[in-house]
Structures are given as C-alpha cells and as structure tokens.
Amino acid sequence: MDxxxxxxxxxxxxxxxxxxxxxxxxxxxxxxxxxxxEIAERAGTAKxxxxxxxKSKEELYLTICVKGVAGFGETLERAxxxxxxxxxxxxxxxxxxxxxxLREPSVFRVLRDTFLENVRQNLSPDTVRQVSGIxxxxxxxxxxxxxxxxxxxxxRPTLDPYRFSLLAWxxxxxxxxxxxxxxxxxxxxxxxxxxxxxxxxxxxxGAKNHRxxxx
Length: 215
Description:
mainly alpha; Tetracycline Repressor, domain 2; Arc Repressor Mutant, subunit A; 2 domains
C-alpha cells in the first residue's frame, strides 16, 4: 500500500478532528442547537475549513452516522465470531451493542437522536431515509442469527427475525440511555450489568420454541 503524503495525512487528521468535535457537540447540544462555527472552534480550525471537508452540517451529521453504524457493525461481528452456539451468539451480539454504546456515548447519542421527531424535523427527508436505511440494513444483517435459530428449531417457527432484532435493539437502547444517566435513580447503578443480562435472557425465553424442548 502506498504511503500517503504528509499533506494528505494532515487533511485526514483534520477531518477526523472535525468529526470528533461534531460528535461531542451533537451529543451534548443536539443537531439543531449545534452550529458549524462551534464545531470549527471545538476542532481548532477555521469555519471555512469545515466546508472544504463537508458541504453542510447535515452532510457532516450523516457522515458521523454512517461511520458510527460501521463501528457498531465491526464490534458486533467480533462478538458473533467469539461466541459458540446460536443462543450464545445472539446474547453476545446484544451485550456487545450495549457495551460499545457505553464506550462510545457520543456516537450512540447521535445515532439515537435520528429517531427523535424533534431532530428529524431539522433534517432533510433524504438524510432521514439514508440513516434509517443504513440501520435497517444493519438490523436485517443481525436478524440472520435469529433466522438460523428459527430454522434450527431453537426459536419459535412463527417468530419474525427482523421484528425480534428490532425489539432487542430498542430494549438495549433504552437500557443504555438509563445507564448513561449520572444518577438513574430508578435502579441501583451497580445492578445495571445484571439488568443487561436479564433483559436478553427474557427476550430469548419468550422467543424459544418450548415445544422442541418437550420432545
């Protein structure tokens, strides 16, 4: 692989700095309240430089979302490969999503906010469709494990793999939001890991094909 020039390396580093600054500000203040000037100041560059990398705030937001989903996908794939057996793989992927979200809270919040109506109102329909489509594709990919569970008889034959993945994703997302609170109050923070484990156990228990266990 050819070495990149010093100029190109600096350009890539500046782009990454802009994206990190945008992630932090979008996460803290939301899409609407964050300005390109604030992002530039946080990144330590001129506002005009931002537009050399991203033509608009919306393009920058979309780029962060695409990168964020890719990061989640890589983490979940590693979790899938490291576990043995379908049930353990499904649990591993679910818990990996939660742990990755807690390690990358800014990225998690940016992706989460795409599904808040007050954020969508400030995005173009095309951006909403693109981000939603990327996440739908991601969920359909993760549904493959559930589909294998149905085909093997582990899970109920009437179970819809995509709907299960959607339910698991939104359950995990709600628990991450709770865990990211400074003081969740409704639950002892030391019990959150137990809650994470119990939530996927309950989801799987409801999805299992209990008739096959009786045979």
